[in-house]
TrEMBL record:
InterPro entries: FAD/NAD-bd_sf, FAD/NAD-binding_dom, FAD/NAD-linked_Rdtase_dimer_sf, Pyr_nuc-diS_OxRdtase, Pyr_nucl-diS_OxRdtase_dimer. Its cofactor is FAD. It holds the Pfam family Pyr_redox_2. Belongs to the class-I pyridine nucleotide-disulfide oxidoreductase family. It comes from Plastoroseomonas hellenica. Keywords: FAD, Flavoprotein, Membrane, Transmembrane, Transmembrane helix. This is FAD-dependent oxidoreductase. Residues 6-320 form the FAD/NAD(P)-binding domain. The chain crosses the membrane at residues 6-28.
Length: 476
């Protein structure tokens, strides 16, 4: 039986859920197919559980550091079962917003089965065939499993299995020094585990080198061993767990191995050939408006979308931005395109590392020969000093004319401040918009404002301005 719908959605992660709820809210007939758990990675194996675990770890670190404020407490005792209960509770509290019952209440037909194309205008999900006017592929991505000799002999972990551990790892080895790897390294170290991070390049390789150095120092304080510039070449099972061999000849033992070296789009089961949908190993090939290059009925959103060959943006907030673009372009036929220029990304370690726009290295590589680099250390921020957290830096990259190209922040709550810089970059506002902004005192956000003021200070103190001020003082 073939049922016609206005919009068919494959995948119930952040992007698929947003598209389905918007379309259903507008009165369209919507069918959504999901083969796994509703909510996708961000709810079940990504943002929610990882941030819940980080919160528990931050609490433990706060107890250990309380003596800095004249408060003496015994070392914290980690109840792993209770920590797991906290993580599961966070997922459970957030789950209803992504649940099938909520969607069905909005009129969305939810099919709990895998979906694949049978024709350019038709998908099959379970026993159902659905003909669509528009289809959104939002099937997400999966952890990358690299081809490493011996990996098949051990029970490795990914973000999809890490939070199911009944007992804490004795020694957790993490392959990958990106956001996930570093977040989970710090969380487990603060919860009493030995942790080693293996990174072929440098940690936080996409981020500004100055910020990565500051984060490296912070992670060292937590006792995390960082092995940078080496590759994992072999894994062998032993009586304690496993032995890992590195490209520099070093070997060490671990009880668990977390694979955090990247993600790959979930393409294999979609039968894209039948749907006449073009894809590469990076994802569904789309234009800037997220429409398939080869099937005008089909769009892509979330981790699986590869707009204009720029690569996927594996962030929940990118997925919701995709949904907003699709609402305009697919549902209202308005011109809309996804612009990643002002899209923030955050590594939720302590301190957090946030980036909006271009890093200094990226700006120079993009052809900006002349740049204004503006810095303000957190050690000069009154709020950071008062709270005993002076480590960190705000670094702004601007053109000589005062247009912000990028902002790098290493600070507590850096992610909460990133939106200011996203607004400046996205709206192409000058730095004067930030220097003229009234911020409450004392706040960490003032550090960015002080950095921006450094762009104008030399001009205000120039001989001409000084002379002008001296002349004006004689006027009545």
């Amino acid at each position: 039986m073939t049922d016609p719908v206005d919009v068919a959605v494959i995948g119930a992660g952040a992007a698929g859920l947003a598209v389905a709820t918007i379309a259903a809210g507008l009165g369209l007939k919507v069918a959504l197919a999901e083969r796994g758990r509703m909510g996708g990675t961000h709810l079940n194996a990504g943002c929610i559980p990882s941030k819940a675990l980080l919160a528990a770890a931050r609490s433990a670190a706060g107890v250990r550091d309380s003596h800095r404020f004249g408060i003496r407490l015994p070392p914290p005792e980690i109840d792993w079962a209770a920590v797991r209960a906290h993580v599961r509770g966070a997922i459970a509290r957030a789950a209803p917003n992504a649940g099938a019952a909520r969607l069905r209440g909005m009129g969305v037909e939810v099919i709990e089965a895998a979906a694949h194309f049978t024709a350019p205008d038709e998908i099959e999900a379970g026993t159902r065939r659905i003909r669509f006017r528009r289809c959104v592929i939002a099937a997400g991505s999966a952890p990358l499993v690299p081809n490493i000799p011996g990996l098949g002999e051990i029970a490795w972990l990914t973000s999809e299995t890490l939070f199911d551990l009944a007992d804490p790892p004795g020694h957790l080895a993490i392959l990958g020094g990106g956001a996930l790897g570093l977040e989970m390294a710090q969380a487990h170290a603060r919860l009493g585990c030995l942790v080693t991070v293996i990174e072929a390049g440098r940690i936080a390789g996409q981020e500004d080198a100055e910020m990565a150095e500051g984060l490296r120092e912070a992670l060292a304080v937590d006792g995390i061993a960082l092995r940078e510039g080496v590759q994992l070449t072999r894994v062998a099972r032993d009586w304690e767990g496993m032995t890992l061999e590195l490209s520099d000849g070093d070997r060490f033992g671990a009880t668990h191995l977390l694979l955090a070296a990247g993600r790959v789009p979930r393409l294999a089961s979609l039968d894209l050939v039948a749907g006449q949908v073009q894809a590469t190993e990076r994802g569904i090939a789309t234009d800037a408006g997220l429409r398939s290059l080869t099937n005008r009925r089909v769009f892509a959103a979330g981790d699986i979308a590869d707009p204009e060959g720029t690569g996927p943006r594996s962030f929940t907030h990118a997925a919701t931005q995709h949904a907003a673009v699709l609402a305009k372009r697919m549902l209202f036929r308005l011109p809309a395109r996804f612009d990643a220029a002002a899209l923030p990304r955050v590594t939720y370690t302590d301190p957090e590392l946030a980036q909006v726009g271009l890093t200094e290295e990226q700006a120079r590589a993009a052809g900006h020969a002349e740049l204004s680099i503006l810095r303000w250390p957190l050690s000069e921020n009154d709020r950071a000093v008062a709270e005993g957290r002076p480590a960190g830096l705000v670094k702004l990259v601007a053109t000589p004319q005062g247009r912000l190209l990028g902002a790098s922040l290493l600070s507590a709550h850096a992610g909460e401040m990133a939106g200011i810089y996203g607004l400046l970059i996205g709206r192409k506002l000058p730095l004067s918009a930030l220097t003229g902004l009234a911020l409450p005192y004392p706040t960490l956000a003032e550090a960015g404002k002080r950095a921006a003021e450094g762009f104008y200070t030399p001009k205000l103190l120039s001989p001409f301005v000084k002379g002008l001020a001296g002349w004006l003082r004689h006027l009545p």
